[in-house]
Design the sequence.
């Protein structure tokens, strides 16, 4: 496997400070953060379902936007994945050889930008177009997800900041495009097989 770029010169010292702090933190808290880092993205799926269900029950055109949230999130992930292939940055746990809470990904599983941060921020921003309340919860969760990826040692801080920005930007652009046309799309889709997904019977 070809070696990638070493990103430690950007904020390697900050990364080491965070991982050192993690090793001085009570085990129960580290276990909770590690679990969130691994499984926390499932919360965004739950929030998407709640947002869609609420919009559908009210018969709102925003049900169209709610249905688009998973696709918008996927677009944010796709953009982030393309950037990974361009920058090809080694994981910090590979470059700096420090002990980390989560198993260090294999070489070739590039670090920059963070997929978790991109997915979380894309989902959060997309949800804001459907429900400000659910979107606000998702934004907080997205920040915690991004931070957890540094805490467990699999990303530099600049990885998660970049991933967060990429996901949020893609979701904002796509979300605005869908929001502008949601009424027209609702009228069109409401006449077809997707009608049950847009309004209750």
Sequence:
């Amino acid at each position: 496997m070809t070696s990638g770029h070493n990103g430690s010169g950007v904020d390697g010292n900050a990364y080491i400070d965070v991982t050192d702090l993690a090793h001085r933190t009570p085990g129960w808290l580290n276990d909770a953060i590690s679990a969130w880092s691994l499984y926390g993205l499932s919360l965004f799926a739950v929030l998407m379902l709640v947002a869609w269900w609420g919009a559908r029950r009210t018969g709102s055109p925003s049900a169209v936007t709610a249905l688009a949230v998973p696709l918008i999130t996927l677009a944010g992930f796709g953009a982030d994945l393309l950037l990974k292939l361009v920058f090809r940055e080694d994981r910090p746990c590979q470059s700096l050889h420090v002990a980390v809470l989560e198993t260090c990904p294999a070489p070739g599983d590039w670090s920059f930008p963070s997929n978790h941060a991109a997915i979380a921020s894309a989902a959060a921003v997309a949800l804001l177009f459907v429900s400000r309340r659910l979107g606000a919860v998702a934004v907080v969760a997205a920040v915690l997800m991004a931070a957890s990826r540094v805490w467990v040692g699999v990303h530099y801080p600049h990885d998660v900041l970049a991933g967060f920005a990429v996901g949020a930007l893609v979701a904002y652009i796509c979300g605005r495009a869908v929001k502008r046309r949601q009424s027209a799309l609702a009228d069109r889709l409401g006449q077809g097989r997707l009608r049950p997904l847009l309004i209750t019977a």
